[in-house]
Design goal:
By secondary structure, the protein is α+β, with helices and mostly antiparallel strands. It has 17 helices and ten strands. The radius of gyration is 27 Å and the shape is globular.
């Protein structure tokens, strides 16, 4: 049997040690860089050589394979040493981190590629091609081998996947459960492990039938459940487009936590209450929306109500804040963060003074109610981070009574909740890179 070899510059047999297989890329780059070290080049010349030659050597391979993180870091280190002019007999000072040099020039960087990030982007591009052009020769080949009965990224319900024998859990390198279930038939399918009434994994059944190391592999978080049950093909297309948009924005500059307009989870033991108010000019009424979520983004409660009178925008926001505090008191939450997208109302709630404005009595009402709480904070967020509360406020149009949802959101806002949770997870991963 042939143990190694290349076709069109890429290995056609990938063994278990991917680092050993792709180590030739590092050798090629190191050889090229060592040949340049003897040349007296200015910084501009070194920059051109790095971008046009060194960082393009691995591009073709990264279109098809995910390189080991350790290999990407080693290659980045080689390029970084060359940039700062370090040789074997001398050491230079690294005036800036490599991550900073990989940011765009308009924000102070040099536009170098972080190989790990670029590798993921190239593979994501291949996934986009499979979604956009599924009938190509490559698309048909991959479908026949990896997902013959579904479409790319389609999430199933486990009716055709065996618990034992099929590779279906994220657990390298076997991707299978170690031991068969204790109290389930040997040929059971994954669908038996799903609680369809609560739309989540049946955690008690899983923990009573599998070894602890197998049970922990299941991601029992609400986000995973939400993707599992509501991630149809149209939603997945939106998610892929969203991923690409976030990635493009990241490449335009450092994606920092304080620059991303999104919903941030509260600390453990706290609950975040988002509120918003909208005006319906043709009806001469106002709608208010409130949503309460915990540390992991689970919805504790949601409320939508129409107020049968016409007021200005600030008053509408103040009424929404008052209704939010009223809902909090009714449900018995004591450590809360009140968050809205009206900067004027947030500032008024933060200041401990009596206001003479039209909404001053509403601010005083919220302040008085907050005294009965154990811990109380007020935060401002942009509209994009307040989308669910805004959607609930708009749903109040035409309502003749208050609607409250416990531990769920209306079906019309389920996709918004999914996208907000996905943005939070994806942004956190990008910031952590």
């Amino acid at each position: 049997m042939v143990q190694s070899g290349k076709y069109l510059g890429m290995p056609y047999l990938v063994r278990r040690s991917k680092k050993e297989v792709f180590d030739y890329l590092k050798d090629r780059i190191l050889k090229r860089v060592n040949g340049w070290k003897e040349k007296k080049l200015f910084a501009t010349g070194r920059e051109v050589l790095i971008k046009a030659v060194v960082q393009s050597i691995s591009t073709y391979v990264m279109n098809c394979f995910q390189l080991p993180n350790s290999l990407c870091l080693e290659i980045d280190a080689i390029v970084s040493r060359y940039w700062w002019g370090q040789r074997e007999d001398t050491r230079k000072i690294y005036w800036k981190k490599w991550d900073f040099l990989c940011s765009q020039k308009r924000v102070g960087g040099l536009g170098f590629r972080c190989l790990k990030d670029f590798n993921i982007a190239m593979l994501a591009k291949q996934g986009w091609q499979l979604l956009k052009y599924p009938n190509t020769l490559l698309g048909q080949l991959l479908k026949a081998k990896y997902f013959p009965h579904t479409s790319f990224l389609e999430v199933g319900c486990g009716e055709c996947i065996r618990i034992v024998g099929d590779k279906w859990i994220h657990k390298p390198t076997a991707f299978q459960v170690i031991a068969p279930p204790i109290n389930l038939p040997a040929e059971s399918n994954v669908s038996l492990l799903i609680d369809r009434d609560r739309t989540c994994w049946n955690e008690n059944l899983i923990r009573s039938n599998f070894l602890p190391m197998d049970a922990e592999v299941w991601n029992l978080s609400p986000l995973r459940n939400l993707v599992l049950f509501y991630g149809d093909e149209s939603n997945l297309s939106l998610i892929v487009a969203l991923c690409w948009g976030i990635w493009q924005r990241r490449n335009q500059g450092p994606l920092l936590r304080d620059r991303v307009v999104r919903w941030y989870a509260p600390a453990e033991g706290w609950f975040k209450i988002n509120f918003d108010g909208v005006r319906f000019k043709e009806l001469q009424t106002v709608g208010v929306g409130v949503i309460i979520r915990n540390l992991i983004g689970e919805v504790m409660a949601a409320m939508s109500k129409q107020l049968p009178f016409w007021i200005d925008a600030d008053c509408a926001e103040a009424f929404a804040a008052a209704k939010a505090i009223e809902l909090v008191k009714d449900l018995g939450f004591y450590d809360i963060i009140l968050e809205g997208d009206s900067l004027d109302i947030v500032k008024a709630l933060r200041e401990d003074v009596k206001l003479l404005s039209e909404y001053g009595h509403l601010v005083s009402q919220v302040a008085a109610a907050s005294q009965l709480l154990r811990c109380f904070q007020v935060c401002h967020v942009g509209r994009m981070g307040n989308m669910l509360a805004h959607g609930l406020a708009r749903m109040a149009r035409g309502l003749d009574h208050q609607l409250v949802w416990m531990e769920e959101v209306p079906q019309a806002l389920l996709e918004v909740l999914l996208l907000m949770l996905f943005v939070n997870v994806f942004c956190f991963c990008l910031v952590s890179i």
